[in-house]
Amino acid sequence: MKNILVPVGSSKNALSHLQYAVDFAKFFGAKLFVVQVYNVYTKAGTMIKVDHIIERESLEFLNNLVSKIETKGVEVIVKTLKGKLIDTLELACKAAEVDLVLIEPRTNSIRDEVFLGKTSGKIIKQMQVPALIVPEGYSFSQPTNILMAIKSAIIKKKGVLNPLKDIKTRFNAVVDLLLVKTPYYKEGDFNVNNDLKSLVNNITKTENATTFHGVLRHYESHNPDMLCVVRRKRGFFTKKWEKNTILKKAFHSTIPVLVLSGMK
């Protein structure tokens, strides 16, 4: 894991989130890209050029944040980017060969009932780059027990497990695999290939309405300090991803959540 990207909003949690990102990146010797995406919407009849003003203020905001954290020798690159959020972030990830995006649950939203705000939810739902959701105010600690919850172990996409491999290796973590049989189960879904099998220490099978319900049922017995799920059309966030905002009553996690890109 060489390059990590951190989109920054205006939340009160931005500072602690950046510190977590630095602490996390340090263990991998990774480069940290701290970015803020802005767009300019002009009203009909207005001729005021505001691009340079917004860009300057965004850059000042980011540099001020970075000046308040301990960089601990990590190379931190600050960028302001103009354009549509997802398209711009995807271009940035491709250009910088980003391995992981670190996001906070609510970059702008202040509603207490919200777990993933509109911006964070959109990043998780629409981007294909692996992401790590870090709970608000969460201080970095080395993950030692990771619970990976999936409804299908079929892997067709090359390199999809790389972020999990990197984290397991770097922190010498134990990975428990939870295979959840849902109404969408198909024959062969629980066939674990050698690549995945080499990563996990224990395999548990369960039958639940959704992967999320499977996690709730087995959470306490596994007691993880990181959760790993897979982004797919009918994956962990089924229905919860129909809207970008995800409410706490639908899903909430007090530990970091690693979201892998779809395995198929």
Count of individual helical segments: 7
Q: Give the name of the CATH architecture of the largest domain.
A: 3-Layer(aba) Sandwich
Q: How many discrete domains?
A: 2
Radius of gyration: 19 Å
| Overall pLDDT level | 83
Largest sheet: 10 strands, mixed
Task: Note the beta-strand portion.
Answer: 15-25%
Spatial separation of the terminal alpha carbons: 22 Å
CATH class of the largest domain: Alpha Beta
CATH topology of the largest domain: Rossmann fold
State the share of residues found in helices, binned by percent: 25-40%
**Strand segment count:** 12
**Low-confidence runs:** 107-115, 234-242, 245-251
Summing up helix and strand content along with how strands pair, one would put the structural category as alpha/beta
List the helices and strands in order.
EHEHEHEEHEEHEHEHEEE
Shape: globular
CATH level-four homologous superfamily name of the largest domain: HUPs
The spatial strand order of the largest sheet comes to 3-2-1-4-6-12-10-7-8-9
Folded structure, characterized:
The chain is of the alpha/beta class and 264 residues long. The protein has two domains: 3-133, HUPs (Rossmann fold); 145-247, 3-Layer(aba) Sandwich (Rossmann fold). The chain is built from seven helices and twelve strands. The chain has helices at 14-28, 51-67, 85-95, 118-126, 162-171, 194-197, 211-222, and strands at residues 3-7, 31-38, 76-82, 100-103, 114-116, 131-133, 145-150, 174-181, 202-207, 226-230, 246-247, 257-260. A ten-stranded mixed sheet has the order 3-2-1-4-6-12-10-7-8-9, with helices on both faces.
